[in-house]
Amino acid sequence: MEVAFLPLGGSTLKQWVEAEYLKDLDKSEVHIYDRDGDNLPQYQDACNKVNARDSDCWATLTSKRSIENYLHPDAIQEVLGVRVSYGDNDNVIEIVAKAKWESDNQGRSWENNCSKKNKGILKTHIKTMVSQFSWVKRLFHATLQNRSEIRSDWTEIANCHSSAE
């Protein structure tokens, strides 16, 4: 089986859902969207549109805040060299960016010494690193070695897709 990962977000994600760019490939599609918070998930409409298609497409929201919340902290330490801890609804990118900045700037506080602009740049950099294939491969390999619940979460997603067919 061949799988293609397309990390998308924001307006780009909306365009892909609306335009159905992958439709002519005649392949199954599985869309996994970040929950992004406790309130009404912002990607619920995208999920509904994908699930309403007359094709072999299926969409779901993560049970955790974002895809990064499935990463094991040991994987982040292995790849980025910083030790972090977080829960299912925490902003992992913010936590990792802060830890990385403070690690690189010993004795200086993220809150008091890192400008808003630099925080944004670092968070974007961390998000980009996490979404690049080589990093994803290393992060998820380390995560699968260290966290059994990711196996059950993704197995549940796969089972939902199978039962929807």
Describe what you observe in this structure.
- With 165 residues, this protein is mainly alpha-helical.
- It folds into two domains: 10-61, no CATH class; 69-147, no CATH class.
- The chain contains eight helices and two strands.
- A two-stranded parallel sheet has the order 1-2.
- Helix 3 crosses helix 7 (133-146) and helix 4 (92-104) packs across helix 6.
- The protein starts with 9 loop residues before the first helix and ends with a helix.
Features:
disordered C terminus, two-stranded parallel ribbon, 2 strands, mainly alpha, single chain, 2 domains
Question: What is the overall pLDDT average?
Answer: 80
Distance between the termini: 18 Å
Q: What coarse outline follows from CA principal-axis ratios?
A: elongated
Query: Total helix count?
Result: 8
- Tell me the strand order in the biggest sheet: 1-2
The residue fraction in helices comes out at 55-70%
Gyration radius (Cα, Å) is 17 Å
- Please indicate the percent range of residues in DSSP E strands (runs of 2 or more): 5-15%
Q: Count all strands and give the number.
A: 2
By secondary-structure content and strand pairing, the structural class works out as mainly alpha
Largest sheet: 2 strands, parallel
Number of domains: 2
Low-pLDDT parts are 161-165
Order of helices and strands: HEHEHHHHHH
